[in-house]
Amino acid sequence: MANSKYEYVKKFEIDDKLPPHNWIVVRIDGCHFHRFSADHAFEKPNDERALNLMNSCAVSMLEHFPDIVFAYGVSDEYSFIFKESTQFYERRASKLVPLSVSYFTSVYVMKWNEFFPDKEMKQPPYFDGRVICYPRAKIVLDYLAWRQVDCHINNQYNTCFWLLVKSGKTEQEAQESLKGTVSKDKNELLFQQFGVNYDKLPAIFRKGSCVYIEKLEETVKLDDGGNPVKRLRKKVTVGHFDIIGLKFWNEHPYILEEEK
Questions:
Q1: What's the order of all strands across the beta sheet hosting 77-82?
Q2: pLDDT digits (tens, 9 = 90+) for 82-102
Q3: tRNAHis guanylyltransferase catalytic domain: which residues (predicted)?
Q4: What number of other Cβ atoms are within 10 A of residue 72's Cβ?
Q5: What is the arithmetic mean of pLDDT over 41-68?
Q6: Most CB atoms closer than 10 Å: which of 63, 134, 148, 157?
């Protein structure tokens, strides 16, 4: 900006740099996605094509923004974990959130026909975003566990609800049938009334989706002595795992490796 008498307006800008040595989480949520999914006739309770579209957008995010080390998504939301040491846009919240939201939304629109070649997009999707800072990797793990627990609770309820509706109940009657039920009750309802074993449903529905960088060791050639020469290859990967326990994290310790 050129020096002028109007430059004083810059003094009103807010310093929104996020604190250093904190993991940054940007969570993106669909706005009015109930309406969007209804207008595009998404399958209930889960539309696998819609979920895979969200996952594809998340993969693009990790490929485009190398400081994102992990992402977790369920339904119309996605959480992106920026590494503790990131200096992306000087850690400014006013840059991180809109850039993440706008890029994700743009990719969603661009990839729509890839996943829904039989459906014309009737209205543009839009998402909101928020940013949270966590000072320790342990808290990031607890955050992700919270989101996965939420995935299970919502998916189990929605699976019961929509099967009841499809069996002939009104939506209000289905809500009444589920009022006051706990997880065990819902599992029994699914199995006894519909022959559905909840634990056998696709993991993408029950556990959500994890997007991360997998480090793969591969042999590229043999040396003169016939010994394999190996190199480490990085690949953005989508999986559906339990991230509440520590098995996944122990197998991938580099994802949330803290600063020394």
A1: 127-134, 23-30, 77-82, 68-74, 209-222, 228-239
A2: 999 999 999 999 999 999 999
A3: 6-135
A4: 26
A5: 98
A6: 148
Number of domains in the chain: 1
Quick: pLDDT tens for 145-185: 999 999 999 999 999 999 999 999 999 999 999 999 999 99
Annotated binding site: 29-34, 75-76
The sign one gets for the Cα dihedral 59, 21, 243, 27 is negative
* CATH number where 22 lies: 3.30.70.3000
Q: pTM for this one?
A: 0.91
Residue list, annotated binding site for GTP: 29-34, 75-76
Indicate the annotated binding residues for Mg(2+): 29-30, 76
Residue 204 CA to residue 51 CA, distance in Å, equals 8
232 inside domain? no
Looking at this protein, which amino acid is placed at residue 250?
N
